[in-house]
Amino acid sequence: MTHNSHLIINLLTILSFAFYVYWNQSNFKEKLKILKSRIILCLGLSIGAWFLLPSIHAIYGYGFQTSKSSQFFIVSKFAQTGILDKYLSEYCGEKTYKLCEYQGKFTNNFLWAGAGSPFYLTGGWEAKEEYKQLVNDIFSTPKYVKMFAIKSLQFSIKQFFSFETGDTRPQNKKSACYHAIKTYFPDELQEYEIALQQYNMLDWKLLNYTQSWIILFSTAILFLLLLSPNLYFSNQYYQLVVLLFLFLFLNALVCGTLSDTVPRYQSRLIWLIPFVTIVGLSIAYPQWNQNRVKKKIL
Q: Using the 8-state DSSP alphabet, how is residue 99 labeled?
């Protein structure tokens, strides 16, 4: 579900950015140019991906759908936010969900808590129809839609500022990683078992400390550049900055809504802030030199 979120993130980013660029043009001819620009090409590619992915699934016999397990991830989000417990406590008297037996026993690790978890005890990945019905019932109840929207916004804000590196938990014999290594790379299994990751011996403190300061300074420098009265930046650069923060926000919004708050989701994009800042410095440097020469002449 998290990787399928790329489809949503890309489409929302392109649509939002297209609206921003179109709205900021007062000339009708300029607006018309935008409709024929690369934005439309990007939009077409994004929409095409929405058809390509389910088509591939259909070819391999899984039906024309982007994901066959999205309902499980949504219910997991309900469990994480406390919505699942509240809904079941209110409606289990009139509904026959299997999860009613496990009220108060849900954890943040709803999907991955192991064979004895409520998820697996109620059918696991095979209980598709019941979980789909549960999602439909919750989303058709206005009170819980509002609750989900508020929780999603809270988690999205938290996700926006969570970009640490080092989500490297041990992958023991019950994990999918261990099974894959054992099945396809048996000769590497011994090295896998004695890796530092398996003993929680990887230290990311220095890297995260350095990264946090780089992001902080890059953001500060970026805004100082944009607010400087002595520097000129083209519309294209301002649009790049808008696109940057729009992309970061929508990434956090989608991931914070559909999945857990996991730092790696934002960490994969956070490097774009220093990159755009470096681009800005490369534009500003010749102007600083030119201003210095003018001062010498005067």
A: G
